[in-house]
Amino acid sequence: MKLEINQSAFLKYWTLAEKITGPKTGSIPTLASVLVEADEKGVTLSATNLKTTIRVSAEGVTVIEPGRVILPAKLVGELFKKIPVSPFTVEVSEEKGTIVSGRSRYRFTTYITEDFPDLPYLRNGEEFAKITAGELDRVLKEGKIAGAPNDDFPRYLSGALFQLDGGELRVVSTDGRRLSLSKTHIENGGEASQKREMLLPLKALGDFQPILSSFDPSTEVEVLQDGS
Q1: Dihedral pair phi/psi, residue 14, rounded to 5°
Q2: Under a CB-based contact definition with an 8 Å cutoff, are residues 61 and 55 in contact?
Q3: Is 114 exposed, middle or buried (0-12, 13-18, 19+ CB in 10 A)?
Q4: Using CB atoms within 10 A as the burial measure, which of 33, 80, 158, 192 is most buried?
Q5: Which residues sit opposite 125 in a β-bridge?
Q6: Residue (of 5, 7, 32) closest to 18 by Cα position
Q7: What distance in Å separates the CA atoms of residue 161 and residue 21, rounded to the nearest whole number?
Q8: Looking at residue 36, what is its pLDDT?
Q9: Which residues 6+ apart lie within 8 Å of 195 measured at CB?
């Protein structure tokens, strides 16, 4: 694989994926990595900590040679941010990577792509709601205040309940002693008479919120539900 990268344009998308990577562990070092898939359609960045998964279609990158590689997030991310000359090239062959920027050359080791965890694909998801990024960020911040972020039992103590009923979206959480509720009107929430619910882990929502807040508040966000 060989890519030409425009530093300022590409870093925005790399940073989104990098935020989801988990700490490196002896058994699954790829959790601290970003999967890069490059083909004629463009470049996709994927990362997971086994609870939250992100896929980003990156811009600011030109595919010279297609391929699929796993890049260690911390090491390569620091190089991407400190490269003195842009654009620069990234080339990976047989788990050995090289970054060339002007007269500078940096080498690093990658991981075997088969070691990357299988990621969920929302192939049959049904629309739960459509909402602006700013309004979703607000109801999440207000609605999940009372929950306990640890993996407590029963599960609702460490989760936020999403309820859609009559065109109104509610986000509710509780730690057993207090309760928080936030709500907003959804004009395009599907069939107004159909009530839908789903319970989402607070930790996963915590991973998602920094990404959500990076968008323009008017950006439309589509929330899908696949029944799992």
Answers
A1: -60, -45
A2: no
A3: exposed
A4: 33
A5: none
A6: 32
A7: 25
A8: 97
A9: 163, 164, 165
What does the block give as tokens for 117? 């965890």
Site of tokens 């989760």: 159
